[in-house]
Specification:
Number of strands of chain A: 13
CATH superfamily of the largest domain in chain A: PurM-like C-terminal domain
Strand content of chain A: 15-25%
Shape of chain A: globular
CATH class of the largest domain in chain A: Alpha Beta
Oligomer: homodimer
Distance between the termini of chain A: 35 Å
Radius of gyration of chain A: 20 Å
Helix content of chain A: 25-40%
Order of helices and strands of chain A: HEEEHHEHEEEHHHEEHHEHEEE
Largest interface: A-B, 90 and 89 residues
């Protein structure tokens, strides 16, 4: 196939999304003063970061709400091919969207709420799928050390598409001791950037993958080079990075900044508000499913690395002397990690040396 | 029109919803042990109540996620009739779904996250509607004394219906001092039940109202007895009960139990796990829009009071000697309240004396 797919043609148009995000952020910021009624205040630097942080006295309180996106549609399509529901996997993906964001600020996730909005009550009557979702949700909570506090399972005919489900999770955690707070104040030129491996597409770039599946003659059933089906590989569950971050904290290693690599791929690596250059000399291996997407959608490197995680699911910015130890601690949690780059003074940009790719600050307003 | 509408025919089938709720609750309960990793524990009695409570040391931490349901569809339909978007109103409804539930456990809401999932990025391009949503959300946060911490605004074509939006909110709060925890241990025969007025349908029973609108020749544009349009009255925003509960706490009045009256209407009044009888001698006035629904959908009293709030949005169970003071404190917050009933020993049931209506424990599994 010859078609090149970009993000706009696959249904996600960030330029349309951004204005309301900006308006919402301005309005949200104005409500911070309400906390003074209760004798507390927000940590203002957390606005624009991946989780919201409030100073609760003994500790900081962090909270977040995140959604899976459209990945359930891939699971539904693959069930028709293999008979498996894959809802255990996408349950983990949904939890990962929340906890992997929450831990970027140094928080330990404590509890999650489930939000499962179906297109009709009949969705829940499919016991196999519903039980897989429940089982996967529970397992992901156990892996993340969080209590599943409750949730909503509304049937929203007319709002959610018939037969579909909108999966989201909210998460509450604490930063304790308060010295674990990671909002980037300590980030400095010379810091090493450690990238933690991804397991595949995770939950970002899925619209692109769905569009590609629609263009392939065998769709999701297309075998990849390693013999697995494209759709099956797409459904490998997102890595949960909680235990790695907890191990690093227990080892008293200071994390100067952390970024969860989701939408916009490696552009997220320059999410920090400062003007700094992030130079990468080493690339993690690209998971086969992402190689497959890049090849068949004919994505140039610049587009691939600015829309997919390309093998890096999470980034830790630490002192150079700590980087090797971080890699070891991650490995002990079953997560391969790579000392991949370095922070330098210079204009805000990401330089991927092995590919000759460079992204500048103007490529996207990441904090909107 | 002659058709009698019941809940099943209007698209909400609670008998289909319940099994997954039960499975999810069993699985969720099993994850409580994960909190011991962090040296804390849940308040087990909060499971099955309206908000999840964790003992965080100095205070209890309460959290919740709630959704608006299908009320945005009413706003969308009314915009075609009057040109107003009404998204300011349904923003308040969404916040109310979360904060009014959170406060039942004695919590003070501190922060909320927005979850606005649209059927496509074009939803957010309608600046008037988007700005009304943002403005209404901010105003409801201000009225509730909470900080708007952030949120998600995904475009989920294929999951959310084209042109529609799935609105939800998560909320975090604290119970401080811990003596404010309200999980019903103190509830006893002899307690008075104070009902706080609703403003209309709030966000429960909306599927029924939508079905009714479809059967009326003039639909949402049908004038009611008071001259207002049916659809406009449906969109009166939900009362926020936060300031009333805070005023009661500041007055050192112990709340023995609290219930937010949402789905299942007055059946929620026997939500408490004990076997007790709730006898009502006084009924709050029924808002015109609920009178209109009951009349045109030909709802018998038993059905009306077990599916709609019928003028009572929130219930406080307090010592008889405190009831009059609770009414005064609510009035000072602009909320009319009624000393409406009394708790008695006896089988679990709600007796609405003026109507000769009685509900038993078997009418629904409210805690599932």
């Amino acid at each position: 196939m010859e078609t090149r797919i970009d993000y706009k043609s696959s249904g996600v148009d960030y330029s349309t999304l951004d204005p309301i995000k900006v308006a919402a952020q301005v309005a949200a910021k104005a409500t911070a003063a309400n906390l003074s009624i209760h004798g507390i205040g927000e940590v203002a630097a957390s606005r624009g970061e991946s989780a919201y942080v409030v100073d609760a006295g003994d500790f900081y309180l962090a909270s977040i709400t995140e959604c899976l996106g459209t990945k359930a549609l891939v699971a539904d399509a693959m069930r028709a091919i293999t008979g498996r529901t894959y809802y255990e996997n996408i349950a983990q993906d949904t939890i990962a969207m929340a906890v992997n964001d929450l831990i970027t600020v140094g928080a330990t996730p404590l509890s999650v709420h489930a939000y499962w909005a179906a297109g009709g009550g009949d969705w829940f009557a499919d016991a196999e799928r519903a039980n897989d979702l429940v089982r996967g949700w529970q397992a992901a909570c156990d892996k993340s050390g969080v209590a599943w506090g409750g949730g909503e399972t509304p049937a929203l005919a007319g709002v959610v598409s018939a037969g579909a489900i909108d999966l989201a999770a909210s998460c509450v955690g604490w930063v304790k001791p308060k010295s674990r707070l990671t909002l980037g104040e300590a980030l400095a030129p010379g810091d090493a950037i450690v990238l933690l491996e991804s397991s595949g597409i995770h939950s970002n770039g899925v619209s692109l993958a769905r569009k590609l599946a629609g263009l392939l003659p065998q769709g999701y059933a297309t075998p990849m080079g390693d013999g697995r089906l494209f759709g099956e590989a797409l459904l490998d569950p997102t890595v949960l990075y909680v235990s790695t971050l907890e191990a690093i904290a227990k080892a008293s290693i200071a994390v100067n900044y952390a970024a969860n690599i989701t939408g916009h791929g490696w552009l997220k690596l320059m999410r920090h508000p400062a003007s700094l250059t992030y130079r990468f000399h080493t690339l993690p291996p690209v998971p086969p499913v992402l190689q497959f997407i890049c090849q068949h959608a004919k994505l140039p490197d610049a587009e691939a690395y600015s829309s997919l995680n390309m093998g890096a699911g999470f980034a830790l910015y630490v002192s150079t002397g700590e980087a090797a130890r971080v890699v070891e601690l991650a490995a002990a949690q079953g997560v391969r990690a790579y000392v991949a780059g370095v922070v330098e003074s210079g204009p805000k940009r990401v330089i991927i040396e092995p590919l000759g790719v460079e992204f500048g600050a103007g490529d996207i307003n990441l904090r909107a």
